[in-house]
Structures are given as structure tokens and as C-alpha cells.
Amino acid sequence: MQSYLKEVPLEKAYRLINHGPAVLVSARHDGVDDVMAASWACALDFAPPKLTVVLDKATRTRALVEASGIFVIQVPTAAQLQLTHIVGTNSLAEMPDKLARAGVELFDVDGHDQPFVADCAAWLACRLVPEPHNQTAYDLFIGEVVGAWADTRVFRDGHWHFQDADPSLRSLHYIAGGQFYAIGESLTV
Questions:
Q1: Which among 170, 174, 177, 184 has a CA at the least distance from the CA of 76?
Q2: Entry pTM
Q3: pLDDT digit string (tens) for 48-100?
Q4: Collapsed DSSP state (helix, strand, coil) of residue 125
Q5: Rounded to 5 degrees, what angle do the CA atoms 69, 47, 149 make?
């Protein structure tokens, strides 16, 4: 496990994606690991914590999520811009070495048989909440967050601290056509 990784209380897990970042979705089933990028992920509920993510029918990651019933949502950093773009624009079906080409390094977390992507800013291990109609009609998946962790260099005391961290640790926000923004200035009311 990565030295700067610290568990986040589940009641604060929503804060890890509440700012609308692009995310990496990883899943494992029957010896196959995959990672894809997704822009449509959102906190859904507090207790138990839940989130939603859109997973297109054409993705291999979706098939792994449906088969295993578990997945991980990660918040990639600005330093992972190329990695995020590569796993978001290439399919494991057409590029079997996609993860190696993208430079994806996976690690394990005790008690979770899922692939976690190294060097992200946050990780949320999820159990699929089956909603067949939503999954089929809208590609919309619901996950119950069963574990959450963050990089203490950028998330601590239940809050993001992007303004105090190295800019390479800022979260990515996807627009379209390969254009991303890194999270910007902090404003307080």
C-alpha cells in the first residue's frame, strides 16, 4: 500500500468526488483487470455512502463490473493526464496491453479483491447496487462505497487541500476532445 494513503471515514467519502473530477474506474473478474476513464460520476447518498457512474455498454470495464459486482472509483491527478486519456480512449478489447501502454500501476488493498490505480488522489471501493433497468436503459451504475482512502498530501481532515499541494496532484476535469482542466483556485465564502 502507498505510504501517503490514508483511510477516509465513510461518512466523508462523498467529498472525494463532490467537486466533479474525471475518474478512473477499475474492475477485476476472472483474472482480468481493466481501467477506464469516466467523466460522469457523482455522489448520490450519505448513509450508506453511494455514488453513480456512467459505464457505456461497449466498455470491457463495464462487463467486469457486472460480472464481479465490485469496482473502484479513483480520482486521477494532473500528473496522470496522459494515463487518463489513454485508458479513456482505448478499449482492452482492441488493445490488450492498454494498461501497460498507459503506464498504469495497480496495487492491492487488504480486504478488497479489486485493482487500485497507484498515484491517484483518492480511491473509493464500491459494491454494485444492481439496478438492471438503469444499467440497461441509461448505462447508469450505482455503487455503495465500502472503503475510501485519499492521498494525505492533498486530502486531510475531511477536506481537499489542492491550494497547498504540488500542482501535479490537482484533480482533472474533462471537457471534450482531449481537453482537460486541473482544479483551480480555492474560494471561500
A1: 170
A2: 0.96
A3: 999 999 999 999 999 999 999 999 999 999 999 999 999 999 999 899 999 99
A4: strand
A5: 65
